[in-house]
Amino acid sequence: MEFEPSSFLLSPSSRVVWRGFFALGVIVFALFASSWFFLPVDKVLVSGSKNLDAKEVARMAGVARGNPWLWVSTARAAALEREPWVRKASIVKKFPDTVTIQLEERVPLAMWKRAGKFEVIAEDGTVLPTASAKLTLEGESQARFAEALTVARIARDMGAKRVKFDTNGFSVGFANAEIWVESFESLMKYGESVRMMVMQSRTKRVNVYSWGVSAQ
């Protein structure tokens, strides 16, 4: 069987379609390329940053003045959340040239002493570099560590200086009194009464159980 060479050529209508696709591709490419030069970022705002430098936050987010606004990815907030200080982050773009980086930072809770060393930890147990805290937390029981964080948070708000914990319970130290707590539920239940007793210097030793309070 013989084929005519002309049988492999595109028909006039097909050539029109392919030319249309080519023209569309050129337009899309031109728009994509021009997006790098048009709509540059002019304002980079950082909110909620108290312990982190705003310029460093912008650098970690990959946002800088002059960058193409269209190319700024809000998914970069995940990179910020890998920083210990950052509990939550979001990136908001406002047309045509503004990018706002919003942070919720962790709050230092206590100086945690373990294996003879101190580390400052946040309320969720995250170690915070270059931080300081007035409350001291000491204990090695991993089984009660999460509960110890709750007790430490309540104790801090009550004005305590230190919290020690083991498998049996929690010892909360004040300037003029010592409290032993069976569980954080007991402290939450009787905490206000215990705080008033300590503030009024009515006792030096308080034991807090699920059924009530024993003062000495």
Report on the structure:
By secondary structure, this protein is an alpha/beta fold. It has 2 domains: 14-105, membrane protein fhac (Ubiquitin-like (UB roll), Roll); 108-215, 3-Layer(aba) Sandwich (Rossmann fold). It contains 5 helices and 11 strands, in the order αβααβββββαβββαββ.
Structural features:
5 helices, three-stranded mixed beta sheet, 11 strands, single chain, 216 residues, Ubiquitin-like (UB roll), 26% strand, Rossmann fold, elongated
In short:
30% of the residues lie in helices and 26% in strands. The chain is of the alpha/beta class and 216 residues long.
Helix/strand order: HEHHEEEEEHEEEHEE
DSSP strand tally: 11
**Basic shape:** elongated
Which strand-content bin applies to the residues?
Answer: 25-35%
- Radius of gyration based on Cα positions: 31 Å
CATH architecture of the largest domain: 3-Layer(aba) Sandwich
Name the strands of the widest sheet in spatial order: 5-4-6-7-8-9-10-11
Helix/strand-derived class? alpha/beta
Distance between the termini: 112 Å
Helix content: 25-40%
Largest sheet: 8 strands, mixed
